[in-house]
Amino acid sequence: MMQEKHVTLIPVQQEDRLEFKQKLKTAFTDAVIKEFGQYHGKPIPSDEDIESSFDEENTVLYHILSNDNPVGGAVLQINEETQHHELEWFFIDSGNHNQGLGLAAWQAIEATYPATKVWQTGTPYFEKRNVHFYLNKCGFHITEFYNRYHPDTHFPAGLRDYNLTDLYEYEYFIFEKVMTPPTDEQLKSN
Q1: How far apart are CA 45 and CA 50, in angstroms?
Q2: Hey, what domains does the chain have and what are their CATH numbers?
Q3: Is the pLDDT of residue 164 over 80?
Q4: Which one, of 70, 49, 61, lies nearest residue 109 by Cα?
Q5: Are 130 and 96 in contact, with CB atoms under 8 Å apart?
Q6: pTM listed for this prediction
Q7: Is residue 161 scored above 50 in pLDDT?
Q8: What share of residues in the chain are helix, strand, coil (percent, to 5)?
């Protein structure tokens, strides 16, 4: 039986963004190297992708701590008007995998935003670990699978000709989790 884990979400300060970005890149790059090898092409994710998500309006960045030690991070896009939120980036450092920290962190995020109606996120098709996590642990459902036969509208022209090492960028699942509305009593206790 797995012992319940406790994690804390701490907002990322402006002066910590560079280090946070590097940890995020390392976590994602480790997964791509594991799947495609050391020579997988361009950096994953790109600095531009990360920085543009950091700078979007209504973005919140969190360090994930366990026992006061940093173990990961999350980048959220929060829409207070619609309560449809996006999990832009989510990572647990590879040295902290298989300890229940990802699920504990996700539960802490849900608890921080109890009025949420829908959460949405995406993950590359090859990331079986992430697909399992979102589907089987967190209760998300796959709503779309972008690929060469069903490209995202933001994909570049000529997508059908991309290389195998580009799959991590162009073939991915979109997940959604429709939340059960909290009771008035639950809202008052937060």
Answers
A1: 7
A2: 8-189 (3.40.630.30)
A3: no
A4: 61
A5: no
A6: 0.85
A7: yes
A8: 40, 25, 35
